């Protein structure tokens, strides 16, 4: 009987230990430096930065909490990761598409920004310089005080963007350049190669993109003609008129412009029709 009681007691103790372990495994506490993510599309390229945001908290940051001349995780907890959905250039230097851990070497002058092929690192403790895909030099600039470290994209365009790291009273920034026009033109050519017989809209969009960006103009002319041959709309007729005007063919510009007005009066917004009418009037006056 005594043996049975001892066995039962041992089982209860074991159950209690398992319950405590299970409870501990479920423990959730907030991180002092909370996780953040920022994503920006630049042209056709998605740039995503995942990082943790340490606070100043009254501490000396540069040369103190973050030592000079040593590799830094560029945040807290895990090293910051940066992902590019296409090949890019960083400050003019090529970097293939992919995810990189983003480390830095702060100094009192120029910083080194490092894109390392080993992502998902904890801190910079396992950082290996041999895995660097790219290093660039940038100068830290004075900036408005930021209590919490922050990444942002303060300047963006269709083919480039600035990435800025702000913390305490410093900003460290670099520029990403992307080949938006080249990627879009390749996409347009592929779309035109497989164009459905009734798809005037895709042909128009491809022609409009090329014309607006002043690239592949011979192809743009063929594409808008294809769109018109499928179905005349005020949009593709106006685009054709603008193409003719740019080439100095005012007579055909007027002809297609007037067609665009006629078609547009049955479906285009009134203000758009008025714009075409004004443009055609200017072409007619220029021709006199």
Key words describing this protein structure:
288 residues; alpha+beta; Serine Threonine Protein Phosphatase 5, Tetratricopeptide repeat; 6-stranded antiparallel sheet; 4-stranded antiparallel sheet; elongated
Overview of this protein structure:
- With 288 residues, the chain is α+β, with helices and mostly antiparallel strands.
- The chain has helices at 2-25, 180-193, 200-212, 217-230, 234-246, 250-264, 270-287, and strands spanning 34-42, 45-53, 80-84, 88-90, 93-95, 98-105, 110-116, 132-139, 141-156, 160-177.
- The protein folds into 2 domains: 34-177, no CATH class; 180-287, Tetratricopeptide repeat domain (Serine Threonine Protein Phosphatase 5, Tetratricopeptide repeat, Alpha Horseshoe), CATH 1.25.40.
- The strands form 2 sheets. Strands 1-2-3-6-7-8 form a 6-stranded antiparallel β-sheet, with no helix packed on it. The protein has a 4-stranded antiparallel β-sheet with strand order 5-4-10-9, with no helix packed on it.
- Strand 6 and strand 7 (110-116) form a beta hairpin.
- The protein is elongated and about 75 Å long.
- The mean pLDDT is 91.
């Amino acid at each position: 009987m005594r043996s049975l009681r001892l066995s039962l007691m041992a089982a209860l103790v074991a159950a209690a230990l398992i319950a405590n372990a299970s409870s501990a495994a479920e423990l959730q506490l907030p991180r002092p430096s909370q996780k953040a993510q920022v994503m920006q599309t630049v042209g056709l390229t998605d740039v995503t930065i995942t990082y943790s945001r340490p606070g100043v908290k009254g501490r000396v940051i540069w040369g103190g909490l973050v030592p000079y001349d040593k590799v830094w995780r560029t945040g807290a907890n895990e090293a910051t990761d940066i992902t590019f959905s296409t090949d890019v250039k960083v400050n003019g230097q090529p970097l293939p598409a992919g995810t990189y851990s983003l480390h830095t070497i702060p100094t009192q002058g120029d910083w080194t920004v490092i894109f390392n092929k080993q992502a998902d690192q904890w801190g910079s403790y396992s950082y290996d310089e041999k895995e660097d895909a790219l290093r660039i030099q940038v100068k830290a600039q004075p900036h408005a005080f930021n209590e919490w470290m922050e990444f942002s994209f303060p300047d963006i365009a269709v083919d480039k963007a600035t990435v800025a790291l702000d913390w305490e009273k410093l900003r460290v920034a670099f520029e990403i350049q992307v080949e938006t026009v080249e990627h879009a033109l390749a996409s347009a050519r592929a779309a035109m190669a497989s164009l459905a017989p009734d798809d005037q809209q895709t042909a128009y969009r491809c022609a409009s993109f090329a014309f607006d960006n002043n690239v592949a103009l011979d192809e743009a002319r063929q594409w808008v003609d294809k769109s018109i041959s499928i179905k005349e709309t005020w949009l593709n007729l106006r685009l054709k008129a603008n193409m003719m005007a740019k080439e100095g063919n005012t007579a055909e510009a007027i002809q297609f412009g007037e067609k665009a007005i006629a078609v547009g009066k049955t479906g285009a917004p009134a203000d758009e029709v008025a714009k075409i009418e004004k443009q055609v009037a200017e072409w007619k006056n220029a021709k006199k």
